[in-house]
Amino acid sequence: MQLSDSMLAIEISEPGAPDVLKPVSVAVPVPGHGQIIVRLAYAGVNRPDALQRAGLYAPPPSASPLPGLEGAGTVVETGPGVTRWKIGDKVCALFPGGAYAEYAACHESHALPIPQGLSLREAACLPETCFTVWSNIVMRGGLKAGERFLVHGGTSGIGTTAIQIARALGARVFATAGSPEKAKACEGIGAERGINYRDEDFVAIVKEAGGADLILDMVGGPYLPRNVKALADDGRLVQIAFLQGPKVELNFGEVMMRRLTITGSTLRPQSDQAKARIAAAVEAYVWPMVASGSFKVIIDSEFPLKDAPAAHWRMESSGHIGKIVLKVE
Description:
This is NAD(P)H-quinone oxidoreductase. The chain is an alpha/beta fold. It is 29% helix and 28% strand. The protein has helices spanning 47-53, 120-123, 127-140, 157-168, 180-188, 202-208, 223-230, 252-257, 272-292, 308-316; strands spanning 6-12, 21-27, 35-45, 70-78, 90-94, 103-107, 111-113, 148-151, 172-177, 193-196, 212-217, 231-239, 261-264, 299-304, 323-327. The strands form three sheets. Strands 3, 4, 5, 6, 7, 14 and 15 form a seven-stranded mixed beta sheet that branches. Strand 8 (148-151), helix 4 (157-168) and strand 9 form a beta-alpha-beta unit. The longest helix has 21 residues, at 272-292. The two termini are 18 Å apart. The model has no long low-confidence stretch (mean pLDDT 96).
């Protein structure tokens, strides 16, 4: 089909606060080998978008400089070598960047069919969080049924996803959040115990339960030594972000004596092949959870694409429970 030469997109005019997000008219991307172009209906808003906006998370050299890592819509163009998708297919996808726009390009193996029973709005909330959670708590963290799992930021997009996936896998789930209401919300979607970190000590609570076999953390900073104390012997800590800083003093004697594992990852810089493996695992294991109703998409709020700054202010207020989406069409 014939596409327009230009499209509406949101650019980062300069590093800074949410108001640096500006609507612009830019060229529609052209698909490379193995790539598809998706006409987006909705795009998900994620913490890495805010870090990129602030100048703290540069996109890979080959990626669009526009923000936006996930979305859902319709395939409108395919590049050479594409075999899975055809024009008109409805997909949700992980993008290397550029999803705050009417059109975006991604590798065909990073797009997945819309899960059974979901709208495009709901499906747009899945790729970034599901790829991140599954790759870190299962592929990297090795979470198993019956294990005790702690996730920080339980009402974030990552947190609500991790609680539900871990619960569906048969783990005992603990989650921290910043208010009694948010702690209760964590319990409402599958956490055995929501912990209000402002008034309660997550280390003491988790240790009383036997210690965490796996912790998923995006806070960093002073949480790192506290996480080590909260782990059970032979426990694993997976670090996926550092909202309170990447540097801290840590006594590795405890790590050695109790045979602890500290690891971590970031999704965006990984190779197309690595992301394809994650996509295949998500489709094989998480999509059936969605179809069965054991995993539900939690949406906090929706904003028009041009109101991307308001969406970022909402995310940075930390008042949200679940995902924030941008309506593109």
